[in-house]
Write a structure and sequence with these properties.
Length: about 130
């Protein structure tokens, strides 16, 4: 809850300060255009997202690739629909897979498929207790 309030405070502060400089009409146009861009991204992401789920279930892609390609793009599109300059900035950043991958590396540990090396020899040590 505290993080939401901090975000809300920052969003309102940034939006008011930018709106002071560019004016109310330009702010209105920016909000409408960013919402339309967000809706366009979601409309185009629908088919890609369903294919991504299918590929993830069939193990053709990893969780990391799925998140990198789809989830953050969807979150970014939703943030573009929400009015405000800070949410638009974050939404635009989420459209780039490099940013999404770096964020997921910080907050989510992916399972890695470590293969066993053929150079390893298993050894069993047996103590001789007959002394």
């Amino acid at each position: 809850m505290i993080y939401f309030l901090i975000y809300l405070f920052l969003e309102i502060t940034v939006t008011i300060n930018i709106a002071k400089y560019i004016g109310s009409f330009a702010t209105f146009v920016e909000v409408v255009v960013s919402a339309l861009i967000g809706l366009l991204i979601i409309a185009n992401l629908k088919n890609s997202l369903s294919e991504g789920f299918r590929a993830l279930l069939e193990k053709r892609i990893t969780e990391e690739e799925f998140i990198k390609l789809h989830i953050f793009m969807l979150i970014g599109a939703i943030l573009l629909i929400i009015p405000g300059f800070l949410s638009d900035f974050i939404g635009i950043l989420f459209q780039f897979p490099y940013v999404a991958l770096n964020i997921t590396k910080k907050f989510y540990r992916f399972k890695t498929n470590k293969k066993r090396s053929d150079d390893v020899i298993d050894v069993e040590v047996i103590d001789d207790l007959d002394k």
